[in-house]
């Protein structure tokens, strides 16, 4: 499971305050927490007003790079901003995100073509379909994005397809459609990487952790490869590793028992 | 989801001590805890040596019946003991368990035939197959038990089929085979009730809760109707209700939000 750490995002209230105050220590602590929790990429997103986003994202990237050891997931809704901050990023990582909206494909696929060590998150939205609710809509958009990428020589194994997770409070069928879409897309393109922003499912509902956890298990069973979420939550991490055993992806429970021995899951051991 | 409360079982070390000491207050507290947690049946099992089981089970049933308000699941590996204690039980409940082993069918199906308000847990073990590990073995035994029941006029909707859950540490494929078996059996007999002893999956492994929770979500997705387990664990209960939303069995999240409002899931509210 490829985890993209979600905590360095100005949309998270405390992170937003830290970005506004240029509180470098707070941001660096978020880096360390997520690295310790074993994330594969660190999402870095300013989520500020458009007119100050470039400056804020530059500061954020520079701050994170002072301490981080894992690849960044450079995140902005504006492809122009991604192009501008791209040269600052020292190691190849992920671009978040491409979609069929506006001129994102035209601007960002050439960047991927010219930087073959980079990959991208591709949102299943935009085009004629707009926002994709049903499995069929998600798959249709995924296939279109994969085809557009191919026009630029970008192969599908470089795309993290974000199939969009909605809040279960208004869309009760969000998990069913998401899981069905995974199976549809994997059947045609087994090498794409399927991802999603896990905690969207519990938006506005109480006891969010239970919903996020149940969603993760269902999506992993359907073939999820990655998620954008929070594995500093030890219970979520334990569930992820437990699910791995049960779906047949951890022979002899080695990853699970090793994580336990290292103290990464289970009750926190006192010295 | 029909939950059979597992706590009143002499195989649970503390309960075993309470039974040995005839500690009625401890047993009554287990009744109250499980009723508050919303279980549908209370499993009552002495798990003592065979020569003292009848006396112990009589005491246990009498003690539980002094306070309980929900049906019992009368549990013994010995069908003769079940026949002997049966008249003490005041309200119709479940017999746990029938299987193709020995003369269980011959002794217990007539009891069900003559007591049409009672149902039974039927273990998928015994017969030519023995213990059922694969989905095919589980389904074969389930079909045989359903056919044997029919010979006594016991319809399949009165059978809780226990498909056997093994520990994932020695049988990594236990969840996969269990879930596959549910789908195979439901296809032929949609009215049977599928159950299993949830916590078996985590036997000998650390961080048992994570495994039990992931297993529950996967099995519910496959069509599980019931489990023998512990919903006094609030996290497990929240996950069960969350999974219900995600698999499309809680329209508008009403059961979930009601459970939250009543304080049954989520952080415990202080007065």
Q: Could you please describe the fold and organization of this structure?
A:
The structure is a homodimer of 271-residue chains. The two termini of chain A are 30 Å apart. Chain A has helices at 13-20, 24-36, 50-65, 79-85, 104-114, 135-151, 174-188, 208-222, 234-246, 254-261, and strands spanning 2-5, 41-45, 72-75, 94-100, 119-126, 130-131, 159-162, 193-195, 226-229. In chain A, strand 3, helix 4 and strand 4 (94-100) form a beta-alpha-beta unit. Chain A folds into 3 domains: 1-91; 92-232, TIM Barrel; 236-265, no CATH class. In chain A, strands 1, 2, 3, 4, 5, 6, 7, 8 and 9 form a 9-stranded mixed sheet that branches. Chain A is 45% helix and 15% strand. Chain A is globular and about 50 Å long. The mean pLDDT of chain A is 96. Chain A has 271 residues and is an alpha/beta fold. Chains A and B meet through helix 7, helix 8, helix 9 and helix 10 of A and helix 7, helix 8, helix 9 and helix 10 of B.
Order of helices and strands of chain A: EHHEHEHEHEEHEHEHEHH
Query: What is the second-level CATH architecture of the largest domain in chain A?
Result: Alpha-Beta Barrel
| Helix residue percentage of chain A | 40-55%
Envelope shape of chain A: globular
Total of DSSP H or I helical runs spanning 4+ residues of chain A: 10
Rounded radius of gyration of chain A (Å): 18 Å
Question: What is the level 1 CATH name of the largest domain in chain A?
Answer: Alpha Beta
Quaternary state of this entry equals homodimer
Largest sheet of chain A: 9 strands, mixed
């Amino acid at each position: 499971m490829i985890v993209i750490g979600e905590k360095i995002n100005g949309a998270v209230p405390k992170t937003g305050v830290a970005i506004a105050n240029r509180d470098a220590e707070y941001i660096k602590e978020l880096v360390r927490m997520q690295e310790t929790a074993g994330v594969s990429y660190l999402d870095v997103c300013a989520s500020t007003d458009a007119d100050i986003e470039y400056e804020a994202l530059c500061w954020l990237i520079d701050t994170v790079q002072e301490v981080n050891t894992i690849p960044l997931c450079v995140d902005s809704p504006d492809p122009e901003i991604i192009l501008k901050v791209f040269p600052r990023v020292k190691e190849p990582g992920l671009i978040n995100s491409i979609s069929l909206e506006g001129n994102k494909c035209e601007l960002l696929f050439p960047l991927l073509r010219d930087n073959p060590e980079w990959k991208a998150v591709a949102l299943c939205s935009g085009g004629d379909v707009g926002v994709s609710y049903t499995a069929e809509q998600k798959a249709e958009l995924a296939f279109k994005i994969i085809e557009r990428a191919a026009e630029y020589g970008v192969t599908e194994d470089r795309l993290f397809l974000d199939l969009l997770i909605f809040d279960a409070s208004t869309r009760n069928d969000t998990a069913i459609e998401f899981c069905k879409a995974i199976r549809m897309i994997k059947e045609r393109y087994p090498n794409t990487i399927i991802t999603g922003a896990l905690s969207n499912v519990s938006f506005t509902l109480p006891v969010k952790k239970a919903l996020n956890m149940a969603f993760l298990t269902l999506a992993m069973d359907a073939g999820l490869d990655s998620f954008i979420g929070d594995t500093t939550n030890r219970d979520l991490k334990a569930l992820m590793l437990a699910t791995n055993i049960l779906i047949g992806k951890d022979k002899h429970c080695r990853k699970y028992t090793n994580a336990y021995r290292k103290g990464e899951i289970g009750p926190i051991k006192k010295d």
